[in-house]
Amino acid sequence: MMPGHIVRFAIAIVAFAILARLPVGLDPAFQFDAALAVIWGFGILSLVLLTGYAGQVSLCQATFAGVAAYGAGMTVAGMHGGYLLGIIIGVLAATVLGVIVGLPALRLHGITLAIVTLGIALVFDKYVFQDHIFDWFTGGTGGWQVTQASLFGIPVDSSKHLLTAYDVMLALFGMVAVLMVNLHQSGAGRRFRAIRDSELAASTMGVNLARYKLLAFALSASIAGMGGSFYPRIAGSVSPQPFWVFTSLQLAAIGVLMGVRYVPAAALGGLFMAVVPDVLTRYGHGTFMNRFNYDISYDWFQLAVGVLLVLQLILLPDGVWGDIRAKALRAWDVVRMKPREEVRPA
Amino acid sequence: MTQFAAYTIIGLSLGGIFALAALGIVLIYRVTGVLNFAHGAMGMFSTFVAWQVFYGTPHTGMAPWMVTAEAIGAGLLFAVVLGLVLELAVFRWVRNRPQITKAVITIGVLLALQSAASLIWKNNQYHLPIYLAPQTSTFKIADVPIGANYVVIVIVALGLAFGLAAFLRGTAFGRAMRAVSDDPTAASLWGVRVDMVGAVSWMLGSLIAAVAGILITPFINFDTTSLTLLIVDSLAAALIGGLVSLPMTVLGGFLLGLLETYPTMWIQSLGLPRLIALLVILAVLILRSPRGLPAVAK
After folding, report:
1. Using CB atoms and an 8 Å cut-off, which of residues 77-96 of chain B contact chain A?
2. How many folded domains does chain A comprise?
3. Domain boundaries, chain B
4. Which of A109, A136, A195, B183 is the most buried (most CB within 10 A)?
């Protein structure tokens, strides 16, 4: 083990210990938010791999999570399997969809890929998740009700064991996050970055474009699916609404806003996406200075995301985390009295 | 046979709307190099402004056509201002950024516009459309009754397409726009005011999106999301025209409208038309332009 690996592992353990304690003792709605934050964290982590590392644009990450959620729901509620099997089936379903979406990506890149993935998100939202033809997969209009789930033979239902699920998800998220940081330095990670910088140059240097693009899509979809497959477990049911096309757009927007090249931005973004709207809608009403009534609805959150994304792309192109990171590195250089470097490698 | 003809008419008018929306996308993409994912959202917002004037304000003592004219005028005026504001506040500052960055910015604009509209008009579905012609007026071609509203849409779509083409070819400003679309640096050296051209194309594009949005209201129960998401169908139509050719874009719009309408003779499904749009997008992108979109001004 190299020193870098040990440091990352230690940071992940400490972060896990802190984050796992945070929602203990809070009311169940906040515990649900905490679990949801990990799910959206997985969603943005999948974008870090696909967009930040491999340079492939995707506007359908929530679709991958949704397919995994329905796959898990179908296994548990429809076929009475254990929850572990549900997660495996869910992640497999998302990975298969990832490879299918990756196939047209072999011929496309940049903006055209954004158009195609937006179309895929819309088709799954309006057609697959809502049409009666797919009732075998989506459980009909009510969706799957996952109340009798069991993990390793222990019965776990969503209302009583929210924190158990949260801890399992958080541990999984930490492991995937450390693997992602390691991937950045590995051979596959270097090939991903070569594809991001220039597909032509990468293929000239012998990178198998088809293999690594498909690999990026498959890995990304399975990461998004890992989060999604826990959704029926923590919410008790699956419905199309959490995975509709606007969630995909928000994942992309918040991912870019937080800094799509950096793994910690995924944790930041997931927390932002799950906790901020809930806190706003729960506490954001009352009377200001005894005169002005205000009532903040969910739409204000999305409005803020849209405006912040536009401002960020004009002012801080590397995202919030990228900006913090650059400032911190600069401050560290000042402390060590090193001369200013022009460019820091990512 | 009558049924087939009726579906053809619906398909053609739906296609006319797609064609209109796609024209705006192509215009903005060609001149400024921004692929505008917020095009549907911009049209949606202007449509709701027109709707608000039509149904939400008192019109005592006004003839019906004056109310319609007032509502549409307000919607179109708002659209022009919206296009200008977006260009001045956002897109002027990112002209030299990569194309994909500009596209992601339009996603931010999409999210902001959709949620702002949702704050004002809520998430209700609206049924009351803005009719351009009286709903009852129909006439017959070969024993098939045709609603005047359907004919208006096709005429407006074709008229705007030819008008836009004539404007780009025949007028000095149109030539300036085409010059900027070919090479902004060279155009500016020849004295073309690139800023002005960009602003005008955003205003024109926004205006066309508003026309498309207002025209579609008789067809669907519309809300802030459904009109915003028309962007996928409009992009499909624009891609058939390769994002450059205006006549091919209009043709693509009509083709897509027919393709999405005929299956509803047998299958009632909200999602199927979206699947058809996606398949058209895939077919066009993979078969027609595998190397990506035509290069445009940065």
Report:
1. 90, 93-94
2. 1
3. 2-288
4. A195
Amino acid at A48: V
Judge contact between A76 and A146, C-beta under 8 A.
yes
Residues of chain A with Cβ-Cβ distance to B242 below 8 Å are none
Tell me if A241 is assigned to some domain: yes
Q: How confident is the model at residue B298 (pLDDT cuts 50, 70, 90)?
A: very low
Count the helices and strands in chain B (H runs, E runs): 12, 2
Buried b vs exposed e over B53-67: b needs ≥16 C-beta within 10 Å?
Answer: bbeeeeeeeeeeeeb
Q: Is A107 helix (H, G, I), strand (E, B) or coil?
A: coil
**Partners of residue B118 in chain A, C-beta under 8 Å:** 299
Residues A106-135 pLDDT 10s? 888 788 899 999 999 999 998 888 888 888
Give the per-residue pLDDT at A335.
87
**Cβ–Cβ contact B99 with A under 8 A:** yes
Nearest Cα residue to A173 out of A73, A282, A317, A270 = A270
Nearest in space to B296 (alpha carbons), one of B26, B23, B33: B33
For B288, the token pair is 């027609």
Of A130-139, A217-226, B145-154, the poorest mean pLDDT is in: B145-154
DSSP conformation class of A133:
G
CATH architecture label of B2-288: Orthogonal Bundle (1.10)
Q: How far apart are CA B207 and CA B79, in angstroms?
A: 5
Which residue in B105, B113, B271 is closest to A126 by CB distance? B271
Residue A267 lies in a domain: yes
Cβ distance of A123 and B278 shorter than 8 Å: yes
Report the alpha-carbon distance of residue A301 to residue B67 in Å, rounded: 36
Between CA A69 and CA B133 the distance in angstroms is 47
CA distance B294 to B232: 19
- The answer to the question of residue A311 being in a domain is no
How crowded is residue A166: how many other Cβ atoms within 10 Å of its Cβ? 25
> Is B146 in contact with B139 (CB distance < 8 Å)?
yes
Q: State the residue range of the domain holding A47.
A: 3-283+295-300
Distances (CA, A) of B197 to B27, B174, B200: 11, 9, 5
Residue B297 banded pLDDT, cuts 50, 70, 90: very low
| Spatial contact of A117 and A98, defined as CB atoms under 8 Å apart | no
ipTM: 0.91
The CATH number linked to A89 is 1.10.3470
Cβ count within 10 A of residue A242: 17
Which residues in chain A have Cβ-Cβ distances shorter than 8 Å to B119? 297, 299-300, 303
A114 near B239, Cβ under 8 Å? no
Residues in contact with B50: Cβ distance below 8 Å, sequence separation at least 6, in sequence order: B71, B72, B74, B75, B76, B78, B130, B210, B214
